[in-house]
Design brief:
The chain is an alpha+beta fold. It has four domains: 132 residues, no CATH class; 188 residues, Nucleotidyltransferase, domain 5 (2-Layer Sandwich); 110 residues, no CATH class; 69 residues, no CATH class. It contains 23 helices and 13 strands. The longest helix is centred in the C-terminal third of the chain and has 32 residues.
Length: 534
């Protein structure tokens, strides 16, 4: 695939060396920029963000060949992708802005140009190459490296907070009937295009005209409040799927077409996860929801998810790790909406390893407690998380039982000591509990009090004890900072994904994190300048 990407990115470019000092015209433009200050910052510090070493690294996206047109400097293209995240501009709008908006021209050193310095196709190819070679992560790392050049930046001991927010998918979410119809319609469209005929004409030949309709349910024209009618509709759609498969199998050139195969596989996947045949042989929708249920034809990775019991969303979760000392976003991640938050930390850990930092404090919510960062933590890593609420009862809570981890024993409030195993349950003998003087404050069970020992019980006890002190509660409040960063990133990226699939949306989140970091850098640089002046 990389060979295809570099086909039109021939000849490694020379480094881009635009002027550092602002010209008189540029100064006048800067004075007129009142709100969108990131344009000004990028103009003033573009030579530091994209220094010679980083530009040489980006030039690896280009094939080393003397043929073809002179390539566009990757720094210009990377700046454009950052401005897209900042302004929300599409590829076409970005090209238009480069020929009409002086703020964009200021950053890319093309003031008053009649045509953009590159085409929309070039921008798309650059983005694809950036994703394939994983260099979009380097954009975040460059903002961190730039911050390290200032006195405001701390040591390599990282104190960070991790949190997530919903990101709605960009594709349409459909029910089972429309998912099946949509998959069939795509397959018929491929054949129609291949044969140079109309979609409705092909559907009519097969005998499945309902699939070619603009609305499948309107074409079926049934009472959707009647369960029997809904089952009838499902049978009709599945019959259409069978007819199409029979039609395709009779034409070898169609069955071998990859797009037709994918559409059929998708339809059968939806049937397997959503449809069942009962004991009477009746076809109906499966009760409940399959674990990895597909909800969209165009985006196969979108999933149903929940942020809470009452809040459901369709798409993805975006995760960000914020440096609590500098305010920079150090790493980000994208997961499907139905995947537990903890699963993202493997990717987060890889990003931190590339930055060569030691994570010494991690502030999280309970959704991340099962993550690899927590479970495989070193002795120097301290976890800050709000503990589970101790039950509001007149009886002794679990914390009233003293655990001796050296001897693996548990001691109850009446000083009865028993051995325990990690991950097991301790059952106090019923005869001892029956004669215990504090029984009424401990248990009402006839079999005696039982206590479960979680594999990470020491951490849970530590979290509970920390909440009991003012200093501990103050530490827990530091996690609020990551929620602010999520809010800022959400303002630029929006609540709906721009792209299809996790990888492209990870790219979009990374460049949005760069926008966030550039705003933080602008404040750091301003503070440094003011301190130098005094």
């Amino acid at each position: 695939m990389c060979a295809l990407l570099t086909k039109n990115l021939r000849m490694r470019p020379e480094n881009w060396n635009p002027p550092i000092e602002l010209s008189a015209l540029e100064q006048s433009i800067v004075k007129r920029i009142k709100r969108a200050k990131l344009f000004t910052f990028l103009r003033e510090y573009r030579h530091q963000l994209f220094d010679e070493e980083f530009q040489a690294e980006l030039s690896k996206l280009y094939a080393d060949s003397p043929k073809g047109h002179p390539p566009v400097p990757p720094a210009q293209l990377a700046l454009t992708t950052i401005l897209q995240a900042y302004t929300g501009a599409s590829d076409a709008e970005a090209i238009e802005a480069l020929s009409m908006d002086r703020r964009w021209q200021l950053v890319l050193d093309c003031i008053d140009c009649e045509n953009a310095p590159f085409s929309q196709a070039t921008l798309v190819r650059f983005r694809t190459a950036l994703i394939v070679q994983g260099l979009d992560r380097r954009l975040i790392e460059r903002t961190v490296e730039l911050a390290q050049q200032t006195k405001e930046f701390g040591s390599r001991q990282l104190r960070a907070a991790l949190d997530s927010s919903p990101l709605w998918g960009a594709s349409k979410v459909e029910d089972t009937y429309n998912l099946l119809g949509h998959a069939l319609k795509k397959a018929i469209g491929v054949i129609a295009n291949q044969q140079g005929r109309g979609l409705a004409e092909i559907a009519n030949d097969i005998g499945i005209d309902i699939v070619a309709s603009s609305s499948l349910k309107a074409a079926l024209d049934l009472n959707w409040d009647d369960p029997d009618q809904k089952n009838l509709a499902l049978g009709i759609v599945l019959e259409a799927l069978e007819r199409f498969e029979t039609f395709v199998q009779a034409q070898p050139e169609n069955i071998e077409h990859p797009q037709v195969q994918r559409a059929l596989e998708t339809a059968r996947q939806i049937e397997a996860q959503d449809v069942e045949v009962d004991a009477h042989g009746e076809i109906k929708l499966l009760s409940g929801v399959a674990k990895e249920r597909r909800i969209s034809i165009e985006d196969e990775e979108m999933r149903h998810g929940r942020k809470s019991k009452s809040q459901r969303f369709d798409g993805y979760k975006r995760h960000i790790l914020r440096d609590l000392d500098s305010g920079l976003v150090r790493a980000v991640g994208i997961t499907r909406a139905n995947i537990p938050e903890a699963s993202v930390t493997d990717a987060i850990a890889i990003d931190l390893k590339c930055q060569k930092v030691n994570l010494v404090e991690l502030h999280i919510d309970r959704a991340y407690l099962s993550s690899s960062l927590v479970q495989n933590r070193t002795d120097e890593l301290v976890i800050y998380c709000k503990a589970w609420q101790v039950r509001n009862s007149q009886q002794f809570p679990k914390t009233a039982f003293i655990l001796d981890w050296d001897n693996h024993t548990i001691c109850c409030p009446n000083q009865v000591t028993l051995p325990f195993t990690v991950g097991g349950k301790v059952q106090f003998p019923k005869n001892i509990c029956a004669t215990c003087p504090v029984r009424e404050r401990c248990t009402t069970s006839k079999t005696g009090r039982s206590v479960s020992i979680h594999p990470d019980e020491p951490l849970f006890r530590e979290l509970q004890q920390r909440q009991l002190t003012p200093a501990g509660r103050a530490k827990l409040r530091e996690r609020v900072a990551v929620e602010h960063s999520l809010s800022h990133i959400g303002r630029w990226q929006g609540d709906q994904a721009r792209y299809i699939g996790t990888r492209k949306n990870l790219f979009d989140l990374r460049r949005t994190a760069v926008v966030h970091n550039l705003h933080v850098l602008a404040k750091i640089f301003t503070n440094t300048t003011e301190q130098s002046a005094t």
